[in-house]
């Protein structure tokens, strides 16, 4: 894509994210408005989930904005659900943010600017993080736009120079700034209207019975509920049919393999990765050191098979001590929270699984086996999810903790 095409893409996009340490005018600015841009694109629908904030002169960005699946960089981001630790890493470096201890360290014990949490959202310090990983991995640029700031996070392969990008984005940003100000302005109080004083004279006709409250919708819209599908590959005969169905329907999924079964599934793993699926490792549990050794061996084999690695792990034992130890090392633990009984027909299994998913209010994480029954039930499951507008999302490491 040449710079003219990139410019067109920029102008057709909607909003922007940006970040860097802010100069003195906004040093105190908890009310500072900062929009964000990623590479050559503006981010649409600015909200607390994607807008940077300024605290004490430092710009912090929601941790999800550093995920490789969003930004296109080479970084991995993992949030530990057990110990409240955020790990940002690539093949050379690791930063560990411990929100409970208010610390941030690298592998050598060097200290860096800590992460913060506001309104349940974890924010990472932009400049400190970019400086640590280096310009060849991730960079940032900011500009005072007059009343608000714009921050750009980008990788080395961007097309537009910083000034080109900001100049092209300025009119769009001004529009978003005005819209944002309107959205946070208090609504005027309605004028009180006069209403006649109700009569106390009893009526000769009986009052109508109150209408019954509407019952729940038989087909509720679940567009706000995320569903993450995974498949535990165990050598059963349904895997080929499951994969073909997922590929035909464009359904994202995470596939787990036991370390000892990786070599026997090398062709399957390469096919999965080429099709855009993700791969995780399943281990039985045991002592933490044994678990870490198994995962290291698993990643060694994945590197040989497909020049890849993973930080996603499924523990068959569910031991909390092992889980905490792995999360402290930057592993993302897969914890299913929706399932169906192991017996019954494919139709009964599909219905039970949909009922279990329906009970989840925000996110459902499902692990399927690779049996022929699962392959037979999956079309009914996928149809049910799409009829109710569930978000079927790829289980990336930043979302599954």
TrEMBL record:
InterPro entries under this entry?
Answer: Glyco_hydro/deAcase_b/a-brl
**Gene Ontology BP term (one):** carbohydrate metabolic process
Biased composition range(s): Pro residues: 205-217
UniProt keyword Iron present: no
Key words of the record: Signal
For the region Disordered, give the residue spans: 187-223
Q: Which positions carry the signal peptide feature in this UniProt record?
A: 1-27
Ranges in coiled-coil conformation: none
* Name used for this protein in its record: NodB homology domain-containing protein
- State the species of origin: Lawsonibacter faecis
């Amino acid at each position: 894509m040449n710079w003219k095409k990139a410019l067109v893409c920029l102008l057709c996009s909607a909003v922007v994210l940006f970040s860097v340490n802010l100069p003195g005018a906004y040093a105190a600015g908890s009310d500072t408005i900062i929009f964000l841009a990623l590479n050559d694109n503006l981010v649409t629908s600015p909200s607390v989930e994607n807008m940077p904030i300024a605290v004490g002169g430092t710009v912090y960005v929601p941790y999800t904005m550093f995920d490789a699946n969003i930004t296109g960089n080479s970084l991995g981001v993992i949030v530990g659900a057990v110990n409240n630790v955020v790990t940002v890493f690539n093949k050379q470096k690791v930063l560990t943010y411990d929100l409970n201890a208010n610390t941030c360290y690298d592998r050598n014990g060097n200290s860096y600017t800590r992460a913060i949490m506001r309104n349940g959202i974890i924010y990472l310090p932009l400049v400190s993080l970019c400086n640590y990983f280096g310009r060849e991995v991730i960079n940032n640029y900011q500009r005072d736009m007059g009343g608000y700031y714009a921050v750009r996070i980008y990788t080395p392969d961007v097309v537009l120079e910083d000034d080109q990008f900001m100049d092209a984005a300025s009119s769009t940003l001004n529009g978003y700034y005005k819209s944002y100000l309107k959205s946070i302005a208090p609504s005027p109080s309605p004028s009180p209207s006069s209403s006649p004083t109700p009569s106390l004279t009893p009526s000769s006709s009986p009052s109508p019975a109150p209408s019954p409250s509407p019952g729940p919708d038989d087909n509720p819209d679940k567009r706000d509920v995320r569903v993450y599908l995974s498949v535990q590959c165990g050598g059963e005969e349904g895997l080929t049919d499951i994969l073909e169905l997922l590929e035909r329907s464009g359904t994202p999924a995470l596939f787990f393999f036991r370390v000892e079964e990786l070599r026997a599934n090398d062709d399957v793993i390469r096919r999965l990765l080429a099709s855009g699926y993700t791969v995780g490792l399943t281990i039985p549990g045991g002592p933490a050191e044994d678990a870490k050794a198994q995962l290291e061996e698993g990643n060694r084999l994945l590197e040989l098979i497909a020049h890849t690695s993973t930080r996603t792990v499924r523990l068959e034992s569910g031991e909390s001590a092992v889980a905490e130890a792995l999360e402290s090392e930057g592993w993302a633990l897969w914890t299913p929270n929706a399932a169906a009984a192991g017996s019954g027909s494919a139709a009964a299994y599909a219905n039970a699984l949909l009922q279990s998913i329906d009970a989840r209010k925000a996110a459902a994480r499902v692990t399927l086996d690779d049996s022929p029954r699962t392959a037979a039930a999956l079309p009914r499951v996928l149809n049910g999810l799409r009829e109710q507008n569930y978000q079927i999302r790829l289980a990336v490491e930043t979302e599954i903790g």
